[in-house]
Design brief:
The protein has 399 residues and is an alpha/beta fold. It has helices at 48-59, 119-130, 141-147, 163-169, 195-208, 210-220, 247-254, 263-270, 274-284, 289-307, 312-319, 324-335, 339-346; strands at residues 5-7, 37-42, 71-76, 80-82, 89-91, 104-107, 134-137, 155-156, 174-175, 181-183, 187-190.
């Protein structure tokens, strides 16, 4: 975990740099010989919550996985950084030179979006972008990216409260104000505070696959996956007469992903009309039944491929996607990878050398399948739960 001192106005102290200890190899796209390096650039009045989210996702040791996933560091423009509202002072972290070694640079966020960032901070962001580093803006971090000029003509999101201000100041940025996060290839932005965890897990999924991301989410005691296209604000009214939670229905459906599940069948199980079921999905999950089913089936398919021993025909059948052709279509659409490419990147080492054919392996049906891996390198966010592929033949009902 990152080292440093958190002081309530005390004297500077701590080490002369912050990092995640002796990190084992494991992450992708880093410099050969070391894991992918994630650097958080902290600046005056930064929000502690997003800093904590980044540390929890990228900076902790992972003994349950047998390895650490990232080389994690903090850096700042000065030796003492006053955090939001003066809650505490951050000291003992590295200087901005650490940003020049980042494979992923997480930029500062802050509540005072009208106060420009320091020129040295913006220059560090520009240098990282110019050399091809992955940039991440959590919450109001989108303002920092836009100030640095790297979002011009790009897609981004920010907290819904600042949408009008953001558009007025940065008209050249394509703001999507009602989504959890936006993946625009090499630049990522997330909405309000908790969406930082959603985006962090999305990046873990891109780097290490669905199985590892699920393990990280279990340790966080956080939902394994909320699609980036889900709404930032989801109403959850208190039931007036009886529990209308979708949780029992979702668990029931997750145990039967390989069966011909339809919206009508789900509605019958919940003892409501299809229209009422749609409303409940929109209200409680911010998505549609079709899109949710497609995501769950794709998540299961990704985990089966990662575990190995199961041919693509069997993966398609067990996940409910029906055919290898539809499996390939949905994986390319949602992850940017073919099943074979996904297995080569995330599958067992002994399964990467040659293609797997047929129906090898015993059937598995894990409980609680949530989310789907999305490793694509282009724009992936959809609006208000209308995820791509939700209406594709075979995406919901197995042939």
């Amino acid at each position: 975990m990152a080292q440093g001192s958190l002081q309530g106005g005390g004297d500077p102290g701590g080490s002369d740099g912050a990092r995640a200890g002796d990190v084992a190899a494991g992450a992708t796209d880093g410099v050969p010989g070391r894991p992918h390096r994630v650097v958080v650039l902290v600046d005056e009045n930064s929000n502690p919550f997003e800093l904590g989210c980044a540390t929890e996702v990228f900076g902790l040791h992972r003994p349950e996985l047998g390895r650490d996933l990232y080389d994690f560091r903090l850096c700042a423009a000065g030796p003492r950084t006053r955090m939001r509202d003066g809650f505490f002072t951050l000291t003992g972290v590295g200087d901005l030179s650490a940003a020049d070694t980042a494979d992923t640079l997480i930029v500062p966020n802050r509540p005072d979006v009208d106060v420009p960032r320091r020129p040295a901070v913006l220059d560090a962001v520009r240098r990282a972008h110019a050399r091809g580093a992955r940039l991440v803006g959590l919450c109001s971090g989108a303002f920092t990216l836009a100030e640095a000029g790297v979002l011009e003509g790009r897609r981004a999101t920010a907290h819904w409260q600042w949408a009008d201000d953001f558009r007025a100041r940065f008209p050249g940025v394509h703001l999507e104000p009602d989504v959890l996060f936006v993946d625009d290839g090499d630049i990522f932005t997330s909405a309000g505070s908790a969406a930082a965890l959603d985006l962090g897990l999305h990046l873990v999924r891109r780097d290490h696959g669905a199985e590892v991301a699920n393990a990280v989410s279990r340790r966080l005691v956080f939902a394994a996956h909320r699609d980036g296209g889900q709404r930032q604000f989801v109403e959850r009214p208190v039931p007036q007469t009886r529990d209308t939670s979708l949780a029992p229905l979702l668990e029931w459906a997750q145990e039967r992903l390989d069966t011909p599940l339809t919206v009508a069948r789900l509605a019958a199980r919940a003892a409501v009309s299809p229209a009422t079921l749609h409303r409940r999905f929109r209200t409680q999950l911010g998505t549609t039944p079709l899109a949710w089913l497609t995501g769950e089936r794709l998540a299961l398919a990704c985990r089966l491929i990662e575990r190995g021993g199961t041919g693509f025909e069997a993966v398609a059948r067990l996940s409910g996607l029906g055919t290898p052709a539809n499996l390939r279509l949905q994986m390319q659409r949602h992850t940017g990878l073919t099943p074979a490419a996904y297995r080569a990147r995330f599958g067992p080492a002994d399964a990467r050398a040659a293609p797997i054919r047929g129906r090898a392996g015993a059937r598995t049906r894990p409980r609680g399948a949530q989310g789907h891996a999305r490793a694509r390198g282009d724009a992936t966010t959809q609006r208000r739960g209308g995820q791509a592929g939700a209406s594709e033949p075979g995406a919901v009902t197995a042939p």
